[in-house]
Protein backbone atom coordinates (compact mmCIF):
# COMPACT_ATOMS: atom_id res chain seq x y z
CA UNK A 1 0.00 0.00 0.00
CA UNK A 2 1.39 3.34 -1.01
CA UNK A 3 0.98 6.24 1.42
CA UNK A 4 0.27 9.62 -0.11
CA UNK A 5 2.04 12.60 1.39
CA UNK A 6 -0.36 15.12 2.87
CA UNK A 7 0.24 18.71 1.80
CA UNK A 8 -0.87 21.35 4.26
CA UNK A 9 -2.31 23.67 1.63
CA UNK A 10 -4.79 20.99 0.52
CA UNK A 11 -6.58 20.96 3.88
CA UNK A 12 -8.35 23.68 5.75
CA UNK A 13 -8.99 23.29 9.51
CA UNK A 14 -12.57 22.14 8.98
CA UNK A 15 -11.38 19.29 6.78
CA UNK A 16 -8.70 17.80 9.04
CA UNK A 17 -11.03 16.12 11.51
CA UNK A 18 -11.35 13.09 9.21
CA UNK A 19 -7.57 12.56 9.24
CA UNK A 20 -5.80 10.29 11.67
CA UNK A 21 -4.60 11.88 14.89
CA UNK A 22 -0.99 11.69 13.65
CA UNK A 23 -1.90 13.37 10.33
CA UNK A 24 -3.78 16.10 12.17
CA UNK A 25 -0.72 16.75 14.33
CA UNK A 26 1.56 16.91 11.28
CA UNK A 27 -0.78 19.42 9.65
CA UNK A 28 -0.93 21.56 12.80
CA UNK A 29 2.86 21.49 13.20
CA UNK A 30 3.41 22.51 9.58
CA UNK A 31 0.76 25.20 9.72
CA UNK A 32 1.55 26.73 13.12
CA UNK A 33 5.00 25.46 14.19
CA UNK A 34 7.01 28.57 13.32
CA UNK A 35 4.37 30.80 14.84
CA UNK A 36 4.45 28.84 18.10
CA UNK A 37 8.26 29.08 18.33
CA UNK A 38 8.13 32.84 17.68
CA UNK A 39 5.45 33.30 20.33
CA UNK A 40 7.36 31.20 22.86
CA UNK A 41 10.53 33.15 22.12
CA UNK A 42 8.74 36.43 22.76
CA UNK A 43 8.09 35.19 26.30
CA UNK A 44 11.28 33.35 27.20
CA UNK A 45 13.88 35.14 25.02
CA UNK A 46 15.89 31.94 24.45
CA UNK A 47 15.99 29.94 21.23
CA UNK A 48 16.40 26.52 22.82
CA UNK A 49 13.77 27.14 25.48
CA UNK A 50 11.32 28.39 22.82
CA UNK A 51 11.90 25.26 20.74
CA UNK A 52 11.48 23.04 23.82
CA UNK A 53 8.23 24.78 24.72
CA UNK A 54 7.05 24.35 21.14
CA UNK A 55 7.65 20.61 21.42
CA UNK A 56 5.75 20.52 24.71
CA UNK A 57 2.88 22.42 23.10
CA UNK A 58 2.55 19.87 20.31
CA UNK A 59 2.83 16.96 22.75
CA UNK A 60 -0.03 18.47 24.76
CA UNK A 61 -1.91 19.10 21.53
CA UNK A 62 -1.50 15.48 20.45
CA UNK A 63 -2.63 14.19 23.83
CA UNK A 64 -5.72 16.45 23.78
CA UNK A 65 -6.58 16.39 20.09
CA UNK A 66 -9.48 13.98 20.47
CA UNK A 67 -10.97 16.24 23.17
CA UNK A 68 -10.69 19.46 21.12
CA UNK A 69 -14.26 20.79 20.98
CA UNK A 70 -13.77 23.27 18.12
CA UNK A 71 -15.19 26.14 20.22
CA UNK A 72 -12.21 28.14 18.99
CA UNK A 73 -9.85 27.85 16.04
CA UNK A 74 -6.86 25.54 16.14
CA UNK A 75 -4.66 28.63 16.05
CA UNK A 76 -6.29 30.14 19.15
CA UNK A 77 -6.19 26.79 20.93
CA UNK A 78 -2.46 26.36 20.21
CA UNK A 79 -1.76 29.96 21.26
CA UNK A 80 -3.54 29.36 24.56
CA UNK A 81 -1.49 26.20 25.21
CA UNK A 82 1.70 28.09 24.28
CA UNK A 83 0.92 31.07 26.52
CA UNK A 84 0.25 28.74 29.45
CA UNK A 85 3.44 26.74 28.88
CA UNK A 86 5.44 29.97 28.60
CA UNK A 87 3.99 31.40 31.79
CA UNK A 88 4.83 28.16 33.60
CA UNK A 89 8.37 28.31 32.23
CA UNK A 90 8.85 31.96 33.20
CA UNK A 91 7.88 31.06 36.78
CA UNK A 92 10.31 28.13 36.84
CA UNK A 93 13.74 27.96 38.43
CA UNK A 94 15.42 27.39 35.05
CA UNK A 95 14.19 30.65 33.62
CA UNK A 96 15.23 32.68 36.63
CA UNK A 97 18.76 31.24 36.74
CA UNK A 98 19.87 30.96 33.11
CA UNK A 99 21.30 33.90 31.14
CA UNK A 100 19.59 34.93 27.91
CA UNK A 101 21.14 34.74 24.45
CA UNK A 102 20.14 37.00 21.59
CA UNK A 103 18.20 35.08 19.02
CA UNK A 104 15.52 37.48 17.89
CA UNK A 105 17.17 38.37 14.60
CA UNK A 106 16.72 34.88 13.17
CA UNK A 107 13.01 34.68 13.99
CA UNK A 108 12.14 38.34 13.73
CA UNK A 109 8.88 38.92 11.95
CA UNK A 110 8.79 36.22 9.31
CA UNK A 111 5.34 37.57 8.37
CA UNK A 112 5.35 41.27 9.31
CA UNK A 113 2.09 43.20 9.48
CA UNK A 114 1.42 45.81 6.78
CA UNK A 115 2.36 48.53 9.32
CA UNK A 116 5.83 47.05 9.64
CA UNK A 117 6.55 46.04 6.04
CA UNK A 118 7.92 49.47 5.11
CA UNK A 119 10.68 49.32 7.71
CA UNK A 120 14.10 47.94 6.93
CA UNK A 121 15.43 44.90 8.76
CA UNK A 122 17.67 46.91 11.08
CA UNK A 123 14.76 49.10 12.20
CA UNK A 124 12.61 46.02 12.82
CA UNK A 125 15.37 44.40 14.89
CA UNK A 126 15.77 47.52 17.03
CA UNK A 127 12.03 47.72 17.65
CA UNK A 128 11.71 44.02 18.39
CA UNK A 129 14.66 44.13 20.79
CA UNK A 130 12.87 46.95 22.65
CA UNK A 131 9.58 45.00 22.64
CA UNK A 132 11.42 42.24 24.51
CA UNK A 133 12.15 44.70 27.33
CA UNK A 134 8.46 45.28 27.96
CA UNK A 135 6.75 43.45 30.83
CA UNK A 136 5.09 40.23 29.67
CA UNK A 137 1.54 41.61 29.90
CA UNK A 138 2.44 44.44 27.54
CA UNK A 139 4.80 42.41 25.37
CA UNK A 140 2.21 39.73 24.62
CA UNK A 141 -0.43 42.17 23.33
CA UNK A 142 2.13 43.89 21.08
CA UNK A 143 3.31 40.53 19.70
CA UNK A 144 -0.22 39.28 19.10
CA UNK A 145 -1.49 42.53 17.59
CA UNK A 146 1.41 43.67 15.42
CA UNK A 147 3.42 40.54 14.74
CA UNK A 148 0.66 37.93 14.60
CA UNK A 149 -1.97 40.37 13.26
CA UNK A 150 -4.66 39.43 15.75
CA UNK A 151 -7.60 41.73 16.45
CA UNK A 152 -8.30 43.15 19.90
CA UNK A 153 -11.22 40.73 20.28
CA UNK A 154 -9.09 37.73 19.30
CA UNK A 155 -6.44 38.75 21.84
CA UNK A 156 -9.16 39.26 24.44
CA UNK A 157 -10.48 35.73 23.85
CA UNK A 158 -7.01 34.21 23.79
CA UNK A 159 -5.85 35.78 27.03
CA UNK A 160 -9.28 35.60 28.72
CA UNK A 161 -9.29 39.31 29.46
CA UNK A 162 -11.68 42.16 28.63
CA UNK A 163 -11.17 43.83 25.23
CA UNK A 164 -10.82 47.20 26.98
CA UNK A 165 -7.94 45.71 28.99
CA UNK A 166 -6.29 44.69 25.71
CA UNK A 167 -6.70 48.24 24.38
CA UNK A 168 -5.28 49.70 27.59
CA UNK A 169 -2.30 47.33 27.49
CA UNK A 170 -1.68 48.17 23.82
CA UNK A 171 -1.75 51.86 24.66
CA UNK A 172 0.64 51.43 27.61
CA UNK A 173 2.92 49.18 25.58
CA UNK A 174 3.15 51.71 22.74
CA UNK A 175 3.87 54.49 25.25
CA UNK A 176 6.63 52.48 26.96
CA UNK A 177 8.01 51.36 23.61
CA UNK A 178 8.14 54.96 22.43
CA UNK A 179 10.08 55.86 25.58
CA UNK A 180 12.49 52.98 25.01
CA UNK A 181 13.03 53.98 21.39
CA UNK A 182 13.63 57.60 22.38
CA UNK A 183 16.21 56.38 24.90
CA UNK A 184 14.72 57.64 28.13
CA UNK A 185 15.94 54.53 29.94
CA UNK A 186 12.46 53.39 31.00
CA UNK A 187 12.54 49.70 30.11
CA UNK A 188 9.15 48.97 31.66
CA UNK A 189 10.43 47.15 34.74
From TrEMBL:
<dbReference type="Pfam" id="PF08281">
    <property type="entry name" value="Sigma70_r4_2"/>
</dbReference>
<dbReference type="InterPro" id="IPR013325">
    <property type="entry name" value="RNA_pol_sigma_r2"/>
</dbReference>
<keyword id="KW-0805">Transcription regulation</keyword>
<dbReference type="InterPro" id="IPR036388">
    <property type="entry name" value="WH-like_DNA-bd_sf"/>
</dbReference>
<protein>
    <submittedName>
        <fullName>RNA polymerase sigma-70 factor (ECF subfamily)</fullName>
    </submittedName>
</protein>
<comment type="similarity">
    <text>Belongs to the sigma-70 factor family. ECF subfamily.</text>
</comment>
<feature type="domain" description="RNA polymerase sigma factor 70 region 4 type 2">
    <location>
        <begin position="134"/>
        <end position="177"/>
    </location>
</feature>
<keyword id="KW-0804">Transcription</keyword>
<dbReference type="InterPro" id="IPR007627">
    <property type="entry name" value="RNA_pol_sigma70_r2"/>
</dbReference>
<dbReference type="InterPro" id="IPR039425">
    <property type="entry name" value="RNA_pol_sigma-70-like"/>
</dbReference>
<dbReference type="InterPro" id="IPR013324">
    <property type="entry name" value="RNA_pol_sigma_r3/r4-like"/>
</dbReference>
<keyword id="KW-0731">Sigma factor</keyword>
<dbReference type="InterPro" id="IPR013249">
    <property type="entry name" value="RNA_pol_sigma70_r4_t2"/>
</dbReference>
<dbReference type="Pfam" id="PF04542">
    <property type="entry name" value="Sigma70_r2"/>
</dbReference>
<feature type="domain" description="RNA polymerase sigma-70 region 2">
    <location>
        <begin position="28"/>
        <end position="92"/>
    </location>
</feature>
<dbReference type="InterPro" id="IPR014284">
    <property type="entry name" value="RNA_pol_sigma-70_dom"/>
</dbReference>
Amino acid sequence: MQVKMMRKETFCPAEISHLSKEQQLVWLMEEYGDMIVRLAYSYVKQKQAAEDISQEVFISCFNSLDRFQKKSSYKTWLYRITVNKCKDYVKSWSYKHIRYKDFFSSILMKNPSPDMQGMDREEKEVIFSKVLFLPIKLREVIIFHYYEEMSVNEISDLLSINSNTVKTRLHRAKKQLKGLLEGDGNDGR
